[in-house]
């Protein structure tokens, strides 16, 4: 008999809810977490200015009405410490820590056929057996560590945004470099710019950032709490896992110019990622996309005083929203400070890190501090980091040309192994917490179904998986996603196969597909 019914890997938003849900259903579940405490992404990414770019009222659990009523988010977009405090509160309230092993990393998983169980080996060499494994390992949890030659020679301080020190770092009067201008980079840059001695930003691809319009939300939240369930129901059926209001009809539906301009203006000024839902077909229609992209480009031009710097900051080579957009609070304005310099690494490639700084394009820049905000091996990285085997087959080999899953939940040949927000599910194209709840609830119901019917094994059919892989690729082909060199496509990791990692069909559609599959007795899965 296995040690546990279910082994859950990871104690972030996914793993915590998965543990609670399974315990509620009477399963013997246990979590293994690499970090020293709960939080996952929100434990590790504690860099200055770290903040969620999905609104806090949606980026939170809906499963517990009492929790929903008692917790008060202070701001429209919660900062990292508040999200971590929320997850700690949830862990305490639901008494979750007793079933979590901290500071423990799963390094391999091996499936035993006759017994229908997984053996997990941890970094201490200990083993745990479980009938089922749920990988709640996160989509952006395996950091990308670009090999800048000479990094070890640097005499100053090096910080990675994904592993920031717990003690406060003082940048006063320091000469600071930041490499990377994704969400982590631009949040860090904006937060430290007021105090640094000087700041030099090394940018490879300019981002489309729209304003957050962050604010205190005490009154809004009190009002929402009178009908929170309606908001949650709407979230689950929305495109992105959080309601964005009515978008404009498809671009070609006779939209007059004034209406287009006022919609873009209204969305931009309202703030946040709902901007990308200005038109229903913004990610499908090149003309609609170009119109929204041009709007943001013009706003960048308005904000940055030096036209040459503004031009460098302006994205022109890829469609808006085809690469993860950023949400900012004064990011572009940072470049109006006299002590801030922007280096375009396409013009001045980083050649090496030296003892005193960074050599780029033949110029030596001297620094006291280098901050690396270079992103993640998204969606597949955390799974590939575990040696997952069934007989002679490894998941790494199976996915060597790109992930192959059924519904982003399981992969054929690897029975009893579920992924929460796995590749080929909406995940990173959505409010993660909505997508996490959908998966946790679906997986939990599937495990209850197996138990009720005396079954011990579930695995997708190869044909169903092939169909889903084709559906995912076909859906991505109908969009402009492939036109951007983004981590959505695996493009940021050298040697990673290019494949659409998320399912672009939207949260609501996906939820209906999952519900339909469960109702039809788990169509496409083999239950033994
Ligand atoms: P991102 O969005 O992947 O950003 C990483 C940044 O680092 C991005 O600007 C990269 O440029 C840059 N990068 C990566 N490698 C290099 C090298 N070798 N040289 C120069 N620049 C480099 O990760 P984040 O952590 O900012 O955000 C992750 C998600 O968290 C975000 O999308 C939200 O969902 C929240 P590139 O664009 O690849 O050219």
From TrEMBL:
Keywords (alphabetical) are:
FAD, Flavoprotein, Monooxygenase, NADP, Oxidoreductase
Needed co-factor(s): FAD
Which superkingdom?
A: Bacteria
Q: Which InterPro entries match?
A: FAD-binding_Monooxygenases, FAD/NAD-bd_sf
Q: Does the keyword Lipoprotein apply?
A: no
Gene Ontology terms for molecular function: oxidoreductase activity, acting on paired donors, with incorporation or reduction of molecular oxygen, NAD(P)H as one donor, and incorporation of one atom of oxygen
Describe the family membership recorded for this protein in Swiss-Prot or TrEMBL: Belongs to the FAD-binding monooxygenase family.
What protein am I looking at?
NAD(P)/FAD-dependent oxidoreductase
């Amino acid at each position: 008999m296995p040690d546990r019914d279910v082994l859950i890997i990871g104690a972030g938003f996914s793993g915590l809810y998965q543990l609670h849900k399974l315990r509620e259903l009477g399963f013997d579940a246990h979590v293994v977490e690499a970090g020293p405490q709960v939080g996952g992404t929100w434990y590790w990414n504690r860099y200055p200015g770290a903040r969620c770019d999905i609104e806090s009222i949606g980026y939170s659990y809906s499963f517990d009405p009492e929790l929903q009523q008692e917790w008060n988010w202070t701001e429209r977009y919660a900062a990292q410490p508040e999200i971590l405090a929320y997850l700690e509160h949830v862990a305490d309230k639901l008494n979750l820590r007793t079933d979590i092993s901290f500071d423990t990393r799963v390094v391999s998983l091996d499936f035993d056929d006759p017994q229908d169980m997984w053996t997990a080996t941890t970094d201490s060499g200990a083993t745990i057996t479980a009938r089922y494994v749920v990988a709640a390992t996160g989509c952006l949890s395996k950091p990308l560590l670009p090999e800048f030659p000479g990094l070890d020679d640097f005499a100053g301080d090096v910080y990675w945004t994904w592993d920031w020190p717990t003690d406060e770092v003082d940048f006063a009067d320091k000469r600071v470099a930041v490499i990377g201008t994704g969400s982590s980079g631009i949040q860090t840059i904006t937060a430290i710019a007021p105090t640094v001695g000087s700041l030099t930003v090394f940018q490879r691809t300019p981002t489309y950032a729209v304003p957050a319009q962050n604010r205190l939300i005490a009154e809004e939240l009190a009002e929402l709490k009178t009908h929170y369930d309606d908001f949650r129901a709407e979230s689950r059926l929305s495109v992105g896992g959080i309601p964005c209001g009515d978008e404009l009809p498809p671009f070609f539906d006779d939209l007059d110019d004034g209406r287009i301009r006022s919609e873009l203006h209204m969305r931009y000024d309202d703030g946040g990622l709902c901007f990308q839902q200005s038109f229903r077909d913004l990610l499908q229609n090149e003309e609609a996309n170009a119109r929204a992209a041009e709007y943001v480009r013009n706003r960048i031009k308005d904000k940055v005083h030096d036209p040459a710097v503004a031009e460098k900051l302006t994205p022109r080579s890829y469609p808006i929203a085809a690469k993860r957009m950023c949400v900012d609070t004064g990011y572009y304005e940072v470049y109006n400070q006299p002590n801030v310099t922007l280096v375009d690494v396409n013009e001045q490639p980083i050649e090496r890190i030296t003892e005193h700084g960074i050599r780029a394009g033949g110029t030596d820049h001297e620094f006291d501090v280098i901050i690396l905000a270079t992103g993640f091996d998204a969606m597949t990285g955390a799974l590939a980091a575990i040696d997952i085997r069934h007989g002679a087959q490894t998941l790494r080999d199976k996915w060597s040309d790109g992930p192959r899953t059924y519904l982003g939940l399981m992969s054929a040949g690897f029975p009893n192994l579920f992924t929460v927000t796995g590749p080929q599910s909406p995940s990173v194209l959505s409010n993660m917490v909505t997508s996490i709840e959908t998966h946790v609830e679906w997986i939990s119901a599937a495990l209850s179904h197996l138990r009720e019917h005396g079954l011990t094994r579930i695995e997708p059919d190869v044909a169903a998986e092939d169909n889903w892989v084709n559906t995912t690729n076909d859906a991505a082909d109908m969009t402009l996603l492939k036109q951007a060199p983004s981590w959505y496509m695996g493009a940021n990791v050298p040697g990673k196969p290019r494949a659409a990692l998320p399912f672009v069909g939207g949260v609501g559609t996906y939820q209906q597909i999952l519900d339909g599959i469960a109702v039809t007795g788990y169509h496409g899965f083999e239950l033994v």
